[in-house]
Amino acid sequence: MVDQKFDPNFKGPIHNRGCTDILCCILFILALLGYFAVGILAWSQGDPRKVIYPTDSRGQFCGQAGTPLEKKPLLFYFNILKCASPLVLLEFQCPTTQLCVESCPDRHLTLMKAKLGNNEDREYYQKFCKEGVDFAPPPELLSKGLCPGMLMPSKAFTRRCLPALGTMKGGVVVVGNETTFDSGEGGSINASEVLEASKKSNVVVEARQVAMRIFEDYTQSWHWILLGLVIAMVVSLIFIVLLRFLAGVMVWLVIVLVILVIGYGIFHCYMEYASLKGEPGADVTIRDLGLQTDFSVYLQIRQTWLAFMIILAIVEVIIILLLIFLRKRILIAIALIKEASRAVGHVMSSLFYPLLTFALLAVVIAYWAITAVFLSTSNEQVYKVFNNSECPFSRDTCDPQTFNTSNASAQCPDAECLFAFYGGETVYHKYLILFQFYNVFLFFWCANFVTALGQVTLSGAFASYYWAFKKPDDIPAYPIFSSLGRALRYHAGSLAFGSLILSLVQVMRVILEYLDHKLKGAQNKFAKFLLSCMKCCFWCLEKCIKFLNRNAYIMIAIYGKNFCTSARDAFFLLMRNIVRVAVLDKVTDFLLFLGKLLIVGIVGIFSFFFFSGRIKAVEEAAPSLNYYWVPILTVVVGSYLIAHGFFSVYAMCVDTLFLCFCEYFLMHVVARSPLFFLFTSTYTTF
């Protein structure tokens, strides 16, 4: 590294600079154009209705507006027992005719009884037969698959008609208060068989059930969630303002309050754990309980609260030990936070810059998610032969338009050509996985670019503050806008270069996670060990690259050099001050993290008591929810992101001031350094 020469007229980021890493800028623009092309292609081929609406045996969407099936939103299975076939788990499709209907059956009725009964029974039964079917002899209707053999009481579940199962005393399974049914084909059906078939037919929609309940909770509580996030924003802003004037007091207050909040969490978990003692079923272990879609069940067992209590206790002990061992460094970090507070006070617009970052990231995430949905739903309808007896064409692909005149229909009279799944064999479908990969890669690249833009913009503004001899006279009128303009005009290529390197590592981590998921059932211990080592190495590599990129962006903001030169200069500068970096900078990050933890803890505790209905004064105002933890987790995660947005400004300010000090100290100029006497007076403590 070449040391910077002392310039008595140097007053901050260089204004006379040129474009850097132009080749990477061009590559990034071309990649974005390709990304837009993939999005347009996906939007032209995809159909999100495949995710929303159930599909009948012809591949038509039940309940879709503007179609003949608009008033038939529910899917009815001719023979629900066939859903117990292992084929459901292999191809995610029941090997029975499926029909869109207006409502589910509410009674038990066989085809024979409907044929011999009154007109009302026949008209009711015809609603569940294929369109245009007249009542011919039942054997003919059954052999051609035109009508179901029987109807049983059913209820709509995720837009599908599933048997209305229940249990009587003693655990006897019933459907509509009946334990057995006439199958309509000369036999009887036990309700337990129906239960097993219903479980298999529901294997595809179990996750959708949870998702629908969560979505319902969001529709009931979104305004309260929004209020919680606004409160988190107000609390964060008040905290930042107080930190501007009472940095020392606020830091110590944060430390004490974090310890108290976690301590209360431990106390609350213990009280819940103790209150469940002796309760029926409370001693069941999480392993015995297994995976449940109703997550509130886990809060009814003691082991859950014991685990929460142990985790919080470990976190509490770690924080206390860190505070004890780092007590001297904390005093120095507080002084650095005070200086950062002054800088933020002179550049108040920096507090609102995270809103721009959030908006840009929201656009990137939305584009990625929409493109992913359209790509995943751009397959074509695939039909296969389903049969009851031996058939050489079983599970072969077929065309429903010509199936009745094909050899398969002639050789297998009971076979049907039913919709199986979505796929395709065109050139587009062959390269669909590459489009998905490209979508993921560009998502990482764009998200990292937005983050890098924010880091360069903030570091340029705070560097203007640091190098200003007369504050605030020498600080530019609009430091944030000036820094943002320089970053976009001159250094878009450098930002794209740094983001590209980080994105490649992140994509490799995604690939390793995918391989790990595929190899979960493998018995090769060496392969698992090697994969775990690679995941660990790439995780460490990602952290290192993020750290180096962050400091390289600071050097870019100050001197306007290309990415590689700035990264090299920042690396050697940090290596010359490795002790300060490892101790002081990280202690400051730890204190800022405690601030975020405090805000999240305060908002999270209040949201827990509100949504769980434990505040009597507002108990009636709390919405009725399937999972009250859904809005709580949303508020907690949102509060952390909001607090992180505000505190990231402080963190970037601290890193910029620290690197500027190291650079100034390297020039051997001490007269103008506002932090020099602070660091040199305590240098021996490092």
Report on the architecture of this protein.
It is a multi-pass membrane protein. It is found in: Cell membrane; Mitochondrion outer membrane. It catalyses: choline(out) + n H(+)(in) = choline(in) + n H(+)(out); ethanolamine(out) + n H(+)(in) = ethanolamine(in) + n H(+)(out). Its main location: membrane. It comes from Acanthochromis polyacanthus. The strands form six sheets. The chain has a two-stranded antiparallel sheet with strand order 1-2. The chain has a two-stranded antiparallel ribbon with strand order 3-4. A two-stranded antiparallel ribbon has the order 5-6. It starts with about 20 loop residues before the first helix and ends in a 5-residue tail after the last helix. The protein contains 23 helices and twelve strands. The protein has helices spanning about 20-45, 50, 85-90, 110-115, 120-125, 140-145, 190-200, 205-245, 245-275, 285-290, 300-325, 325-345, 355-375, 405-410, 425-430, 430-465, 480-490, 490-520, 525-560, 565-575, 580-610, 630-665, 675-680, and strands at about 75, 100, 110, 150, 155, 160-165, 165, 175, 180, 190, 380-385, 415-425. It has about 675 residues and is mainly α. Helix 1 (about 20-45) crosses helix 18 and helix 8 packs across helix 22 (about 630-665). It has three domains: about 75-165, no CATH class; about 210-370 and about 435-680, no CATH class; about 385-420, no CATH class. Helices cover about 60% and strands about 5% of the residues. The longest helix has about 40 residues, at about 205-245.
